[in-house]
Amino acid sequence: MKPFVLLATRAEDVPADEEYELFLRHTGLEPASLRRVRLESEPMPEIDLDDISGIFVGGGPFNASDPYEQKSAVQRRVEAEFADLLARVVAQDAAFLGACYGIGTVGAFLGAMIDRRFGEPISVVDVELTDAGRRDPLLAGMPPTFAGFVGHKEAISALPPRAVLLASSEACPVQMFRVGENVYATQFHPELDLAGITTRIHAYADYGYFAPDELDLTLSAVSRSPVTHTGSILRAFVERYAR
Protein backbone atom coordinates (compact mmCIF):
# COMPACT_ATOMS: atom_id res chain seq x y z
CA MET A 1 0.00 0.00 0.00
CA LYS A 2 1.17 3.50 -0.78
CA PRO A 3 1.54 5.59 2.41
CA PHE A 4 -0.68 8.35 3.65
CA VAL A 5 0.83 11.66 4.79
CA LEU A 6 -0.06 13.70 7.89
CA LEU A 7 0.85 17.38 7.59
CA ALA A 8 1.11 18.82 11.11
CA THR A 9 1.77 22.31 12.47
CA ARG A 10 1.86 21.93 16.27
CA ALA A 11 5.11 23.20 17.78
CA GLU A 12 4.54 21.59 21.20
CA ASP A 13 5.87 18.03 21.28
CA VAL A 14 3.32 16.47 23.65
CA PRO A 15 0.14 17.45 21.75
CA ALA A 16 1.93 16.99 18.43
CA ASP A 17 2.97 13.42 19.25
CA GLU A 18 -0.45 12.64 20.70
CA GLU A 19 -2.12 13.96 17.55
CA TYR A 20 -0.05 11.54 15.47
CA GLU A 21 -0.93 8.64 17.78
CA LEU A 22 -4.63 9.51 17.53
CA PHE A 23 -4.50 9.54 13.73
CA LEU A 24 -2.75 6.16 13.81
CA ARG A 25 -5.37 4.72 16.16
CA HIS A 26 -8.44 5.93 14.29
CA THR A 27 -7.12 5.21 10.81
CA GLY A 28 -5.80 1.79 11.78
CA LEU A 29 -2.53 2.59 10.00
CA GLU A 30 0.95 1.56 11.12
CA PRO A 31 3.61 4.30 11.45
CA ALA A 32 5.26 3.18 8.22
CA SER A 33 1.97 3.83 6.39
CA LEU A 34 1.35 7.29 7.88
CA ARG A 35 4.27 9.62 7.30
CA ARG A 36 4.21 12.71 9.47
CA VAL A 37 5.69 16.05 8.41
CA ARG A 38 5.95 18.74 11.10
CA LEU A 39 5.67 21.87 9.02
CA GLU A 40 6.31 24.20 11.96
CA SER A 41 9.91 22.95 12.05
CA GLU A 42 10.72 22.08 8.44
CA PRO A 43 9.63 23.07 4.93
CA MET A 44 7.07 20.92 3.22
CA PRO A 45 8.88 18.28 1.17
CA GLU A 46 7.99 17.61 -2.43
CA ILE A 47 4.83 15.48 -2.36
CA ASP A 48 4.19 13.38 -5.45
CA LEU A 49 0.45 12.70 -5.38
CA ASP A 50 0.98 9.55 -7.46
CA ASP A 51 3.24 8.07 -4.78
CA ILE A 52 0.82 8.35 -1.85
CA SER A 53 -2.68 7.18 -1.00
CA GLY A 54 -3.88 10.46 0.51
CA ILE A 55 -3.19 13.46 2.74
CA PHE A 56 -4.38 14.32 6.23
CA VAL A 57 -3.97 17.76 7.80
CA GLY A 58 -4.20 18.13 11.57
CA GLY A 59 -5.12 21.13 13.68
CA GLY A 60 -2.84 23.88 14.83
CA PRO A 61 -2.48 27.38 16.26
CA PHE A 62 -2.53 29.32 12.97
CA ASN A 63 -5.54 31.40 11.90
CA ALA A 64 -6.02 32.08 8.20
CA SER A 65 -8.03 35.24 8.91
CA ASP A 66 -5.28 36.99 10.89
CA PRO A 67 -3.87 40.06 9.12
CA TYR A 68 -0.86 39.14 7.02
CA GLU A 69 1.46 41.49 8.89
CA GLN A 70 0.61 39.75 12.16
CA LYS A 71 1.48 36.29 10.90
CA SER A 72 4.85 34.79 11.79
CA ALA A 73 7.38 33.93 9.13
CA VAL A 74 6.64 30.26 9.77
CA GLN A 75 2.91 30.72 9.23
CA ARG A 76 3.49 32.65 6.01
CA ARG A 77 5.75 29.89 4.72
CA VAL A 78 3.28 27.16 5.68
CA GLU A 79 0.38 28.99 4.02
CA ALA A 80 2.36 29.46 0.81
CA GLU A 81 3.31 25.77 0.79
CA PHE A 82 -0.32 24.75 1.31
CA ALA A 83 -1.45 27.00 -1.52
CA ASP A 84 0.99 25.30 -3.89
CA LEU A 85 0.00 21.83 -2.69
CA LEU A 86 -3.74 22.48 -2.84
CA ALA A 87 -3.48 23.81 -6.37
CA ARG A 88 -2.39 20.30 -7.37
CA VAL A 89 -4.70 18.45 -4.97
CA VAL A 90 -7.82 20.25 -6.16
CA ALA A 91 -6.85 20.10 -9.83
CA GLN A 92 -6.30 16.33 -9.61
CA ASP A 93 -9.15 15.78 -7.14
CA ALA A 94 -6.70 13.86 -4.96
CA ALA A 95 -7.62 12.26 -1.63
CA PHE A 96 -7.33 14.94 1.08
CA LEU A 97 -8.87 15.37 4.52
CA GLY A 98 -8.08 18.49 6.53
CA ALA A 99 -9.26 18.84 10.13
CA CYS A 100 -9.72 22.21 11.90
CA TYR A 101 -6.65 24.07 10.57
CA GLY A 102 -7.11 21.96 7.47
CA ILE A 103 -10.52 23.49 6.79
CA GLY A 104 -8.92 26.91 6.90
CA THR A 105 -6.23 25.95 4.40
CA VAL A 106 -8.71 24.57 1.88
CA GLY A 107 -11.19 27.37 2.51
CA ALA A 108 -8.54 30.05 2.01
CA PHE A 109 -7.38 28.40 -1.20
CA LEU A 110 -10.93 28.33 -2.57
CA GLY A 111 -11.60 31.94 -1.60
CA ALA A 112 -14.13 31.16 1.12
CA MET A 113 -15.09 33.87 3.58
CA ILE A 114 -13.19 33.14 6.81
CA ASP A 115 -13.73 35.32 9.88
CA ARG A 116 -14.41 35.16 13.61
CA ARG A 117 -18.21 35.29 13.54
CA PHE A 118 -18.65 31.57 14.03
CA GLY A 119 -15.82 30.59 16.35
CA GLU A 120 -16.71 27.95 18.94
CA PRO A 121 -15.21 27.56 22.43
CA ILE A 122 -13.49 24.31 23.24
CA SER A 123 -16.40 21.97 23.84
CA VAL A 124 -18.52 19.14 22.48
CA VAL A 125 -21.18 20.17 19.98
CA ASP A 126 -23.90 18.39 18.05
CA VAL A 127 -22.94 18.19 14.37
CA GLU A 128 -25.78 17.64 11.89
CA LEU A 129 -25.33 16.16 8.43
CA THR A 130 -26.90 17.93 5.48
CA ASP A 131 -28.77 15.99 2.80
CA ALA A 132 -25.52 15.87 0.82
CA GLY A 133 -23.69 14.65 3.90
CA ARG A 134 -26.13 11.79 4.38
CA ARG A 135 -25.44 10.69 0.80
CA ASP A 136 -21.66 11.11 0.93
CA PRO A 137 -19.76 7.79 0.81
CA LEU A 138 -17.20 8.93 3.39
CA LEU A 139 -19.99 9.47 5.92
CA ALA A 140 -21.87 6.23 5.28
CA GLY A 141 -23.03 4.80 8.59
CA MET A 142 -22.73 8.08 10.49
CA PRO A 143 -25.87 9.08 12.42
CA PRO A 144 -27.66 12.20 11.12
CA THR A 145 -26.52 14.05 14.26
CA PHE A 146 -23.37 13.17 16.19
CA ALA A 147 -21.16 14.71 18.88
CA GLY A 148 -17.83 16.26 17.90
CA PHE A 149 -14.99 18.06 19.65
CA VAL A 150 -14.48 21.68 18.56
CA GLY A 151 -12.42 24.68 19.59
CA HIS A 152 -11.63 27.38 17.05
CA LYS A 153 -11.38 31.16 16.91
CA GLU A 154 -12.31 31.46 13.24
CA ALA A 155 -14.55 29.59 10.83
CA ILE A 156 -15.86 29.67 7.29
CA SER A 157 -18.95 31.86 7.16
CA ALA A 158 -19.65 31.51 3.43
CA LEU A 159 -18.53 28.68 1.16
CA PRO A 160 -17.63 29.25 -2.48
CA PRO A 161 -20.06 27.74 -5.02
CA ARG A 162 -17.76 24.82 -5.92
CA ALA A 163 -17.84 23.41 -2.36
CA VAL A 164 -20.59 21.07 -1.11
CA LEU A 165 -21.72 21.54 2.49
CA LEU A 166 -21.81 18.21 4.33
CA ALA A 167 -22.37 19.14 7.99
CA SER A 168 -23.24 22.09 10.25
CA SER A 169 -23.72 22.87 13.92
CA GLU A 170 -25.97 25.37 15.68
CA ALA A 171 -23.20 27.92 16.22
CA CYS A 172 -21.06 27.17 13.16
CA PRO A 173 -22.69 26.83 9.71
CA VAL A 174 -19.75 25.03 8.07
CA GLN A 175 -18.58 21.97 9.99
CA MET A 176 -17.65 19.88 6.95
CA PHE A 177 -17.51 20.26 3.20
CA ARG A 178 -16.27 18.51 0.08
CA VAL A 179 -14.68 19.83 -3.10
CA GLY A 180 -14.91 17.63 -6.16
CA GLU A 181 -15.28 13.99 -5.13
CA ASN A 182 -12.26 13.47 -2.91
CA VAL A 183 -11.18 16.67 -1.13
CA TYR A 184 -12.69 16.94 2.35
CA ALA A 185 -12.38 19.32 5.28
CA THR A 186 -13.87 19.36 8.78
CA GLN A 187 -14.10 22.10 11.39
CA PHE A 188 -14.57 19.54 14.17
CA HIS A 189 -11.74 17.20 15.14
CA PRO A 190 -12.41 13.63 13.92
CA GLU A 191 -9.17 12.39 15.47
CA LEU A 192 -9.79 13.50 19.05
CA ASP A 193 -10.85 11.57 22.11
CA LEU A 194 -11.37 12.91 25.64
CA ALA A 195 -7.77 12.31 26.70
CA GLY A 196 -6.48 14.02 23.57
CA ILE A 197 -8.54 17.17 23.94
CA THR A 198 -7.66 17.32 27.64
CA THR A 199 -3.99 17.37 26.69
CA ARG A 200 -4.62 20.22 24.26
CA ILE A 201 -6.61 22.23 26.79
CA HIS A 202 -3.63 22.20 29.12
CA ALA A 203 -1.08 22.74 26.34
CA TYR A 204 -2.89 25.76 24.86
CA ALA A 205 -4.24 27.29 28.06
CA ASP A 206 -2.45 30.56 27.29
CA TYR A 207 -3.46 30.80 23.61
CA GLY A 208 -6.69 32.72 24.13
CA TYR A 209 -9.19 29.90 23.61
CA PHE A 210 -10.58 30.52 27.08
CA ALA A 211 -10.03 32.93 29.98
CA PRO A 212 -7.36 32.05 32.57
CA ASP A 213 -10.01 31.29 35.19
CA GLU A 214 -12.04 29.02 32.86
CA LEU A 215 -9.77 25.97 32.81
CA ASP A 216 -12.03 23.80 34.95
CA LEU A 217 -15.11 25.01 33.07
CA THR A 218 -13.49 24.08 29.76
CA LEU A 219 -12.48 20.65 31.00
CA SER A 220 -16.05 20.11 32.11
CA ALA A 221 -17.41 21.26 28.73
CA VAL A 222 -15.57 18.52 26.81
CA SER A 223 -16.90 15.87 29.18
CA ARG A 224 -20.58 16.75 28.83
CA SER A 225 -21.31 14.20 26.12
CA PRO A 226 -19.45 11.13 24.79
CA VAL A 227 -17.86 11.48 21.35
CA THR A 228 -18.02 8.06 19.73
CA HIS A 229 -18.53 8.37 15.96
CA THR A 230 -16.09 10.89 14.49
CA GLY A 231 -13.05 8.61 14.44
CA SER A 232 -14.83 6.34 11.97
CA ILE A 233 -14.50 9.10 9.36
CA LEU A 234 -10.72 8.64 9.39
CA ARG A 235 -11.04 4.88 9.09
CA ALA A 236 -13.48 5.29 6.19
CA PHE A 237 -11.06 7.65 4.45
CA VAL A 238 -8.28 5.06 4.61
CA GLU A 239 -10.56 2.24 3.48
CA ARG A 240 -11.75 4.29 0.54
CA TYR A 241 -8.40 5.64 -0.67
CA ALA A 242 -5.71 3.12 0.29
CA ARG A 243 -4.01 1.93 -2.90
Automatic annotation (TrEMBL):
- An example molecular function term from Gene Ontology annotations: GMP synthase (glutamine-hydrolyzing) activity
Record's keyword annotation contains Ligase: yes
Q: What is its EC number?
A: 6.3.5.2
Q: Does the keyword Cytoplasm apply?
A: no
Domain of life from the UniProt record: Bacteria
Segments forming domain Glutamine amidotransferase: 43-193
Q: Which SUPFAM superfamilies match?
A: Class I glutamine amidotransferase-like (SSF52317)
NCBIfam families given in the database record: PRK07567.1
Q: Which PANTHER family match?
A: GLUTAMINE AMIDOTRANSFERASE YLR126C-RELATED
What's this protein's name? GMP synthase (Glutamine-hydrolyzing)
